[in-house]
Amino acid sequence: MSKEAKILSAILVAVVGGMVALFMIANKSSSTPAPVGDKTKIIRDSSHKTGTGPVQLVEFGDFECPACGVAEPAVEQLLKDYNGKVSLYFRNFPLPQHLNAQAAAQAAEAAADQGKYWEMHNKLYATQKDWETTADPTDTFVGYAKDLGLDTDKFKTALTAKTFQSVIDQDTADATALSVNATPTFYFNGEKYAGSSSYAELSAKVESLLKK
């Protein structure tokens, strides 16, 4: 074999080998599952929590979301029936299509600043139909603050100044990192829940986790 032929042969082998390697890399990449989200974002130390049970239920919710409003009684009943067995964490995920979702989240956070987060949380869901289409729900939310015995001047200042926007933004960023795209989205013990938000299915999930 001539010198030129040997050189051409070596080049051909190198090219073919490179093509095979590229094919193997591409095939490996296409078979790798897509990431399911950063699970360290599910709960933060500052996340609002109620209950002390070993089963951790995290809800990414929107106070104006109709589906969240429907799910709320089931979640509340779950906490009552599994007192000491379920811990609930609520994360803000106000959807842009909901007129007053951001303001409601601000109201909840402003109430939290005065130690009444869950009271305001429950009030907002219970009265969702009363404020969801209001042009400016400020006075309505201040009225709720008064009913809960809060310092209404301090509450209104926080509400109108959007004092706790960074808290809401952090929750929203965490939800985005987890690929959350709808409300309510639930996580049980760090795993995304795929069932319905009916009491029957939520309680069945809790029962299965308590048996583990």
Features:
five-stranded mixed β-sheet, alpha+beta, globular, 2 domains, 9 helices, Glutaredoxin, 212 residues
Distance between the termini: 71 Å
SSE order, as H and E? Answer: HEEHEHHHHHHEEH
Beta-strand residue fraction? 5-15%
Spans where pLDDT lies below 50 across 5 or more residues: 10-36
Query: Given the structure, what is the number of helices?
Result: 9
Q: How many beta-strand elements?
A: 5
Q: If strands are numbered along the chain, what order do they take across the biggest sheet?
A: 1-3-2-4-5
CATH superfamily of the largest domain: Glutaredoxin
> Strand count, sense and closure of the main sheet?
5 strands, mixed
Number of structural domains = 2
CATH top level assignment of the largest domain: Alpha Beta
Helix-and-strand structural type: alpha+beta
Proportion in helices: 40-55%
Average pLDDT level: 88
* Alpha carbon gyration radius: 25 Å
CATH topology of the largest domain: Glutaredoxin
CATH architecture field of the largest domain: 3-Layer(aba) Sandwich
What sort of overall outline do the alpha carbons produce when their principal axes are compared?
globular
Provide structural commentary:
It contains nine helices and five strands; from the N terminus they run H-E-E-H-E-H-H-H-H-H-H-E-E-H. With 212 residues, the protein is an alpha+beta fold. It folds into two domains: 1-32; 40-210, Glutaredoxin, CATH 3.40.30. It has a five-stranded mixed beta sheet with strand order 1-3-2-4-5. Strand 2 (55-61), helix 2 (66-81) and strand 3 form a beta-alpha-beta unit. Helix 3 runs parallel beside helix 6 (138-147) and helix 3 (101-112) crosses helix 7 (152-161). It starts with a helix and ends with a helix.
